[in-house]
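Lab meeting prep.
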Amino acid sequence: KIASEIGVTRSTVWKWIEELRALGAQIKGHPSSGYQLQKLPDLLVPSLVRRELGDAEIGRKVIHYFRIGSTNDVALALAAADKGRSAHGTVVVAEEQTAGRGRFARTWYSEKSSGIYSSVILRPPLSPASAPALTLMAGVAAHATVSSATGLPVDIRWPNDLLLNGKKVCGILTEMNAELDRLHSVVLGIGINVNHREMPPELRAIATSLRIETGKVYSRAQVLVSLLKELERHYRLLLESGAAPIIERWAARSTYAKGKRIRVLA
């Protein structure tokens, strides 16, 4: 019936069904009754994400890849090619990264369709000396996202890691294009381990996921939407009120900051 209604062969329908299954859709097939869609794939579909963000700056454009080297590399190239401000607020997401990275060129484990692998392009009206506040801002936003999703206490480790039960669940990599007195663009790379069933043996002692800690399976699209909304809220706070309230919120959420003197040069 499907084949006749859309004017293709049954073989073509079967190939399409297999492609959908490869993307994660659960489709039941029966010789007499045909196919039944049982579950949609948990993909970071740009149109669904955009619909939840309204007129927000961050997420005004969402670019999705199934498999890519690094979302930060793509975002950096987009920012470099943009001569105006059209790339500002663009978010690059991927289902899988083959060369995801963290600070000091460390590898970021990017299991297919299990985490949030994202990069946000910003063109903030800030000086290069003020750029570190953007990393703290991203940390506070990610903290709010993970806390809301899990209901568990989340700790921020200086300057860019989020921990659940002492294990890393989120990492932030900030890269920028700047001159001595001018900040051209900033890329905030944010990775969150969401639905990983388990981590590789070499990472189990130091890394975890939302699913491992709570036993729940999450909608990655909803986690991404929550993250982008929190980034929007805290980015506006930074621009309107300066770094002080961001630093205060960051310090209140980090045991690594308690009892330590912090000096911000800006």
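Slide two material, second protein:
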Amino acid sequence: MKSSSDFSQSAAAIGAPPGPIDQDAKLLVACAALAHRLGLGETRPEIIGRFSNRAVHLRPLAIVARVPTGTTAVRDARNFAQRECELVQYLAQAGAPVIGPLTHVPAGPHEQAGWAISLWQRAELMEQTPDPVASAWALAACHAALHSAPPAVSKRFVLWQPFDEVDQLLAHPAVIARLAAEDRALLAAQNRWLRTALLAQSASLQLVHGDAHLNNALSTTQGMRWHDWEDAFIGPVEWDLACVVAAARVLGSHVDWSEAVLAAYPAPWEAKVLSLCIHARTVFTVAWMALLAGDDADKLARLQRRLRWLWGHAGSRPTQGDVPAP
């Protein structure tokens, strides 16, 4: 058994967003100041997770601070943190297998030195890979609770938000600098086509996790938990199943675990919708990785492999007129 946070595993697996080390030092000071302001006493903050967010353990307390960093390029940090806290608080109260925000002090988000900081319970992680059957049943339990979410919770979330974010990302200067014009044109064209194709499907729409891959499935001392709900939106459960299997089918990563989760998922799903969602999830992942991969060679290699997969499913290359303007 190892001691960790409910936010560290996925971040460590993917990597860190670009950002100077001195910003991390300032963040640690801000987290300590926030803890003191909330009456939590003296703490020794330590960064334990990096990528689209920083995860900071407020040692010696069983509290993890989550701080949006990379995602703020296209997302309102406070709004996303607020809706995530409200959603996961609802799920925890409904008995869904999640790791909730703090309840004995306000979870936030708290504004401190320019950051939107939310506070979460710390989990004890087990060493082993999460059991795929338990992961599937836990995801289905979350979906059942999400299906019943009251309007006060669901009203904050957007229908098919990933398509909107791809458009925003393709217009971001860092993505324009990273990707060739023809690659951006490919992503834009496929994003449009997939949006139309999925809107035409008869799949039931509800709140979904939005980022349900292996690194967000945690085996804890309290049982299986799904975490990191920042990407939640209104769509079909097939999107979450696509998150489970997309890397396996596109990159050949964690194939056995991913396919076992899909096979064990106990609720109905449609193969056509799943196939479209795998494609759309890959477009979404490439757009975000183009922003966040930095200079990491491994991440850039995975980005290129996903792009090759998308070109292989493009049918034909887009015309020059489809190329988004810088």
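Talking points for slide two:
DSSP finds twelve helices and eleven strands in the chain.
The domain at 2-124 is CATH 3.30.200 (Phosphorylase Kinase; domain 1).
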